[in-house]
Amino acid sequence: MGHVSYAPEQFAELKRQVLDRVDLSREVPDEEMQELIDDIVLSYGKEKYLSLDEKCSLKKALFYALRKMDVLQELLEEPGVTEIMVNGMNGIFLEKEGKLRRWDKNFYSQERILDIVQQMVSACNRIVNESQPIVDARLPGGDRLHVVLPPIAVDGPILTIRRFPETPITMQKLLELDSLSKEEAVFLKRAVQAGYSILVAGGTGSGKTTFLNALSEYIPKDERVVVIEDTAELQIQNVENLVRLETRASGMEDCREITIRDLIRASLRMRPSRIIVGEVRGAEAFELLTCLNTGHDGSISTCHANSTRDTISRFETMSLMSNLEMPLEAIRKQMASGIDLIIYLGRLRDRSRRLLEITEVTGMEGEQVALNPLFLFRETGEVSGRICGIQEKVGVMKQIEKFQRAGILAEIQV
Question: Which residues have CB under 8 Å from 388's CB, separation 6+?
Fold first, then answer.
């Protein structure tokens, strides 16, 4: 990721020279484009006395600018980069191995950032402009893109790209990373198989999507699963009868908006064995609760929250967005009967992601939803900057009827 000895004006001139020699009347293959770039850089290198490394870097930069995602392509191809953040012309930042840092490269103009934005969103069949300055999209490789344009973004176009591994992280990999204990993994495997409805909660970047992907390993292969997301990014594993649904923003060729709520309602007519909602963040919470209380056991979803108890409060608030006239007590009863388990994930100060709590929802206790903690993470110290701890079993499962019906009660200590 070294620097190259050329000014933005020189780079733009080299790009122009390449484009002047391209036959725009036909599809030019990448190999031919590479040859044209090689010729231009060879001539430029003789004039400016560029080293071999500088010539190679310049060739790559020109090819990325003409055929790929410009300066971002290098990061999009680099293993281990999990987040890319472009703050207009104020710099590019990346997350790698849990640490944020500034990258040593940047775009040479705001116009070029806008070009790349349009290239990305058009490939996803999305629209972003001054009248629709915010968009979520899924890149062809599966990465998630979020764009905010001026005038909403004061300092220039903002891009945030969440990258996902080509192969989903398995529960075995999470065990190797000490994200949870073997006992917890066995418990969750049996809970998914038995059809317990699970809510995966946590803060931003705590690994909710990754954990949901890992849980999907345990869904029986003969089930029909409907996956609903704002932007398709889940990598559900080992399910043959899989339906994936994605929301649609309004304004695309005058099409009406299709929301998560719309998709949950539509999914009920698709004969799902279980429904997976990538993330609940608004009024669709009430629709999901309705599903959970009408025989769709085993459904899994994620939710932003700061604790297990906060997850309940968040769901109450989101459900009220849909139906302000419904009494809060009625919503709490829906939650108490529809949600079986809450998995709370967190990111510790060493940036590691851990399963912090598994809690059972046991019903109502007075006017509150009753919670029964089953597993808790307890910190025991710190070694070489890494936090150590143990996953303690602190409670006994009370609602065991689904384990009994699935015939797996004897296989798990509840």
Answer: 379, 380, 381, 382
Read off the tokens for 310.
Answer: 């906060």
- CATH code of the domain made up of 171-411: 3.40.50.300
CB 302 within 8 A of CB 200: yes
CA-nearest of 256, 249, 164 to 212 is 164
One fold for 68-163 and 171-411: no
Q: Are 62 and 47 in contact (CB under 8 A)?
A: no
* Nearest CA among 369, 357, 285 for reference residue 332: 369
Residue 248 DSSP symbol: B
What tens digit of pLDDT does each residue of 272-330 get? 999 999 999 998 999 999 889 888 889 999 999 999 999 999 999 999 887 778 889 99
The pair phi, psi for residue 264, each rounded to 5°, is: -65, -45
8 A C-beta contact, residue 292 and residue 300: no
Angle at 93 between CA 87 and CA 96, to 5 degrees: 150
Query: So where are the chain's domains?
Result: 1-67, 68-163, 171-411
Half-sphere exposure of residue 179: CA atoms within 13 angstroms, side-chain side: 24
- What is the value of pTM for the model shown? 0.78
Q: Are 339 and 292 in contact (CB under 8 A)?
A: yes
Each residue's pLDDT tens digit, 62-71: 777 766 677 8
Spatial contact of 319 and 286, defined as CB atoms under 8 Å apart: yes
Is CATH 1.10.3720.10 the classification given to domain 68-163? no
